[in-house]
Amino acid sequence: MKFAVVGSGTMGHGIAEVLAIYGHQVKLIDISWDILNRAKQRMEESLRKFYEKGTVKEDPSVILSRIEMSTSYDVAKDIDFAIEAVPEILDLKRKVFQSLDEIAPKEAILATNTSSIPISEIAEFTSRKDKVIGMHFFNPPQIMKLVEVIPSKYTSEDTANKTVELARSLGKVPVKLRIEVPGFIGNRIFLRLMQEACREVESGEASIEEVDSCARNKIGLPMGIFELSDYVGLDIDVDLWENIVKRGTSDVPCKLFKEKVARKELGVKSGKGFYEYPGNKYLKVKLPATSKVDPARLLSLAVNEAAWLVENNIVKPSEVDDVMKYGYNFPKGLLEIADELGIDNILRNLEDIYNKGYSAYKPQDLLVKMVKEGKVGKKSGEGFYKYA
Ligand code: 3HC
């Protein structure tokens, strides 16, 4: 198939690389040759790593020869599928989608990797609303297996099926939402993790390092919550936070993240965020081996969010778990972990924090019902899953 990837930054260059690894022809479009050349260098470095490990058999130069770079949309005139990965600015998305709609063949699907702008708003920039869809990759796209597929109210079933199939053919695990919700699945849960991490620190319950040590050493996550926030980019975190809350999700008061962004401390990409990254390169953060933070407390708001998603039939418990395993490299699904920690413990923490005046922690009916019925997880034989 022939693809256009518009935007060659952190996500765009990774998506183009994945497509080329799987044998596709890619037109990588961006506004300047400086940006495109930097993308080429990053793709070269990444492909070299894969080649040396043997996970990619073809020589990097052969794979790269399938990627044609351009500063003009004209190269998109014979594509089958486009994926947009430009900054989250509505006017920019408008320009990209209007240009693609004008130049790409009428039957081409136009996907967006947005993490915070409603897909239907983007679809409305085009004359092919049924062929516009969300295809949300996770950072780094070369490694993370998850792709969230988000049909808008206009997207046809054919477009959704083709997008799911494409994700599968790229070795990814697609999770399709039944209805579009702000932040989709992964970022809604990631937001809740950031909010609780921030609340614990700002209320003096724990330090940043203790929160992150709990996440990494007790729960087994690949990164602490603040460490992951630095990795994603604090400007992106604040952006997705504001976009989700603006569209009707309850907020948790927190200043830490915004203050960092105001000081231009954006995480890995600026060399400093909650931690320091010499040379603007990610380096595993050093954390204390032990922590007083309770995993059931740190995960409580995220589990409550997952319960909301399940209760509202957006996704099934196993799909929430796929999102966290394949999009965030959780060692187990969030709801599997919740079953192990005990739904009663999760509920107790939610009630405790709610009673301190944080309205976002109001326990979901599903959790209250599960506890009432004695479905408290592994120890009772049933929680989100059944145990023999
Ligand atoms: N290309 C090729 N290889 C890469 C790579 C890339 N771009 N990035 C990392 N690697 C390789 C490294 O070379 C290393 O290989 P090795 O094990 O053979 O030495 C391996 O991956 C592990 O990398 P590191 O040693 O640098 O560090 P870690 O062991 O911590 O792994 C990680 C890095 C895979 C990123 C891991 O920390 C992780 O899974 N973190 C969680 C990431 C996550 O949650 N992403 C989702 C963010 S949210 C999002 O994207 C949504 C958006 O909308 C905000």
Summarize the structure.
This is 3-hydroxybutyryl-CoA dehydrogenase. The chain is built from 17 helices and eight strands. The chain is α/β, with parallel strands linked by helices and 388 residues long.
Query: Please, what is the average pLDDT?
Result: 97
Distance between the termini: 46 Å
Q: Roughly what percent helix?
A: 40-55%
CATH class wording of the largest domain: Mainly Alpha
Major β-sheet annotation: 8 strands, mixed
What are the secondary-structure elements, in order, as H or E?
EHEHHEEHEHEEHEHHHHHHHHHHH
Number of helices: 17
Task: Just name the CATH architecture of the largest domain.
Answer: Orthogonal Bundle
Care to describe what's here?
One of its GO terms (biological process) is fatty acid metabolic process. It comes from Acidianus hospitalis. This is 3-hydroxybutyryl-CoA dehydrogenase. It is built from 17 helices and 8 strands. With 388 residues, the chain is of the alpha/beta class. It folds into 2 domains: 2-176, NAD(P)-binding Rossmann-like Domain (Rossmann fold), CATH 3.40.50.720; 186-376, N-(1-d-carboxylethyl)-l-norvaline Dehydrogenase, domain 2 (Orthogonal Bundle), CATH 1.10.1040. An 8-stranded mixed sheet has the order 3-2-1-4-5-6-7-8, sandwiched between helices. It starts with a strand and ends in a 16-residue tail after the last helix. The structure holds 3-hydroxybutanoyl-coenzyme A (3HC). The site of 3-hydroxybutanoyl-coenzyme A has 23 residues, from helix 2, helix 7, helix 9 and helix 14.
